[in-house]
Amino acid sequence: MKKLIVTVIILFIGVNSYSQEFDLGVKAGINFSNVYGLDKLNLEYTEGIVVGVFAGVKFSDRIGLQVDALYSEQGAKFTSSGSGKFDLTYLNVPVVLKYYLVDDQPLYIQVGPQVGFLINDDLRTVIDNSSVNAAGNDTDIAAVMGMGYDFPYGIRLEGRFNLGITSITDYQLESGRHKYISLTIGYSFL
What we know:
Residues 19-169 form the Outer membrane protein beta-barrel domain. The protein is mostly beta strands.
């Protein structure tokens, strides 16, 4: 974790000397999350909060890079056919490449990887009348894609779709992965 933070700081210091703009701010919003790959559990989307900070650089009128550090509540809820819960909390660190659709315009698309570090997990379920308690994996890797719009006075709206690549649990019989939509509003100080 320390190596990742040091690497990101060095990246921004080095890149900032060649960039036109530096961006720093806060964001907050809501996640609509579920777990795919566990079809027999009949899971539904659940809501959670997402809050954190972001930093970015803009290399040209159309290309930029943004790194976030986000407290993120994710998981799924069960339908009436099952019982239990999937409540997971992560420190997510997405690194997204931003592409502005028109020169000097505020609408952009973004894509990149995300690493999530598990903060808290509550994974309990009943499958075929037997109780299963599983521990969440310490890290979660996901792909991120989305859109955003930079309003005047530093206001920013973003919508992202996150699709898990790694399994969320160490439970060998099932391999569930995150999928969620994140909607945030942010404020850039710079």
